Amino acid sequence: MRPTGRLHIGHYLGVLVNWHKFQDTYDSYFSIVDWHALTTKYQNVSEIRSHIHEVALDWLAAGVNPEISTIYVQSAVPEIAELHLLLSMITPQNWVEREPTLKDMVKMLAASEDDAKDKVTYGLLGYPVLMTSDILAFKANLVPVGKDQESHLEFARDVVRRFNHIYGVEFFHEPQPEFTATPLVKGMDGQKMGKSFNNDIKLADTDAETLKKVKQAITDRTRIAKSDPGHVDLCEVPWPLYQTFGTQILDKVKTECEGAQIGCVDCKTRLAGLINDYFKPIREKREGLAKDPDQVNKILDYGNKKARAVAGETLAGVKELMGLSRWV
Ligand code: SF4
Prior knowledge:
Radius of gyration: 23 Å
CATH class of the largest domain: Alpha Beta
Bound molecules: iron/sulfur cluster
């Protein structure tokens, strides 16, 4: 995950919940990928450090467990960068250029920047290889991805096959996708929840902040007055959120809404209460951790060391195969 700052409840439901299952089942590695952040945000670095800390706090509070998983910061594992360099030597240029997610990123930059040409850097062009190195450094078998990221894994498998073929040994496994369901969580304006759209509820928000945001949520646009019957199927944000946070009272909400027994403001106030109850333990844990930055740093240091040891072994094997000496 890139260090983009505090995570929202869409990240929690879409990603972190799946990570719980992963860490209970597999030897898992979770990385805050700060080099990837630099591929597009290299001019805007003042907040990277604090964002790494915020992401780590959110992960830990949300239940990513450093005792059974390895949590690390990408740039603290320089072996990944060296592997990236070595893999870039065997990766044909046209493989990188045809990578669909890279094409999308270039398009996005072109739409948002006047001097987009200069924004497409050598580092950005190489990011599929960096992502491959993130995976192969740990000889990962499985990578949790959404369907839209399948091409990353295909790219990594192509590099694996080429590497194994050139050096005549099955050194890397072909990493497989473990597709995870990522429910679409709507932001308060009815669009996809996103940090940059200013429509999100953060894991770290207080009860009052959550209430204020939920009160702004778009409801049934055809319902003008409290005495008008509402339509849950036209209710853009609260009703879908009730499907996650208020499953026990769905029938009650529907009856009250469609019978005009409750106004949208009261209905949203109740929903905010349910969201706050759901995230209470996570928020309390986060608050406790936030008071002790040393503890978070220690956890990251520990994970970084573990990650370096594993990635170092992989790198040593790659160097051996590529004819490089093990200079110390
Ligand atoms: S009463 Fe509740 S469910 Fe019905 S439209 Fe208003 S916010 Fe939505």
